[in-house]
């Protein structure tokens, strides 16, 4: 399969990490880990964000795909 696109050697058709986060506290939990404000009530949306460590330093960038209020996907290419 031919890659969709490459940026600095990263193939955008094969993410490095793909996490499914579920549960009633999925949104508040993820809000504490990323730089993007994740507002409740906006189902079926995509947001670009930066992932932070416990000290607030940037670890990676990612996309958050909100499937519902209790199911989110975090996809990172780096």
Characterize this entry briefly.
The protein has 78 residues and is mainly β. It has one helix spanning 26-31; strands at residues 6-7, 10-11, 17-22, 45-52, 58-68, 71-76. The chain has a 4-stranded antiparallel beta sheet.
Explained architecture:
By secondary structure, the chain is mainly β. It has one helix at 26-31, and strands spanning 6-7, 10-11, 17-22, 45-52, 58-68, 71-76. Strands 3-6-5-4 form a 4-stranded antiparallel beta sheet. The chain has a two-stranded antiparallel ribbon with strand order 1-2. Strand 5 (58-68) and strand 6 (71-76) form a beta hairpin. It is globular. It starts with 5 loop residues before the first strand and ends with a strand. The mean pLDDT is 80.
Secondary structure: elements and pairs:
Layout: E1 6-7, E2 10-11, E3 17-22, H1 26-31, E4 45-52, E5 58-68, E6 71-76
């Amino acid at each position: 399969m031919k890659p969709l696109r490459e940026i600095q050697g990263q193939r955008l058709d094969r993410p490095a990490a793909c996490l499914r986060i579920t549960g009633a506290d999925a949104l508040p939990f993820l809000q504490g880990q990323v730089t993007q404000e994740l507002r409740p009530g906006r189902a079926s949306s995509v947001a670009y964000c930066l992932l932070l460590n416990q000290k607030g330093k940037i670890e990676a960038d990612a996309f958050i795909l909100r499937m519902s209020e209790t199911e989110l996907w975090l996809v990172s290419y780096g």
